[in-house]
Amino acid sequence: MVILGDNKKRSAPHQALHWKDVPAFYATLSDDDPTQLALRMLILPGVRSDSINNMRLGQLMSSVWIIPPLHVKSRADSDFVFDVPLSKEHLHVIELAKKHSRNGYLFPNSTGGPLNKMAMRNFLVDNNIPARPHGFRSSLRTWLMDEIHCEEEIAEACIGHVRTGDEAVDAYKRSTYLPKRTPLMKEWANFITGNS
Q: From 1.10.443.10, 3.30.420.40, 1.10.390.10, 1.50.10.100, which CATH number describes the 21-191 domain?
C-alpha cells in the first residue's frame, strides 16, 4: 500500500492580460484567420474555449447566442443553456467568420470539425502574448469590477457563473440576468474596439 502525502502543488491562475491591454491586443487580430476570429469571439463575451471551439451557426438566434449545456461547464448533465447577448461587434465577427464555416461550425478545423482545443492557446504562445484563452474571462471580470462597479452577482453571471453551489438556492434561482448583462456586454465590446 502506498500512502501519498498532501499535494503541495498549488494551482496557478490562468495568465491574463490586464483589461487595459485587451483593446490593443484585440486590434491586432486578423479579420480573415479563423483562429484569430475565434479569439475575437472568445474575448467579447468572456466564454470558455470549448464554447467557441464548438460554436455552430444553429446556436445563433438574432441577438443572442445560445450555448448548449454540453459546452457550458458543469451543465452537461442538466438542461440549462447559457444565453450570450450579442453586440454589434459580435455580429461583425460572426459575419467575418461565416465565410470559413464548414459543417455548421463557425470556427472549423481543417477537416470541418470543431476548432482544435489548442488552436487559440497555440496562437497566443507562438506570438508571445502573456495570456491564455481562459485568462480573458479574468480580464472581463476585473473590468466589470474596476470600471463598471458591477454587482458581484451580475459580474459572475456575465462569465457564466450563475450557480451558487447551494442546491437549495440553485433550485429556485434560475435567472441568467440576460437583461442586465446585455448592456454590459455592449459596453465591453465598445471598450475593446475603442468605440466607448
A: 1.10.443.10
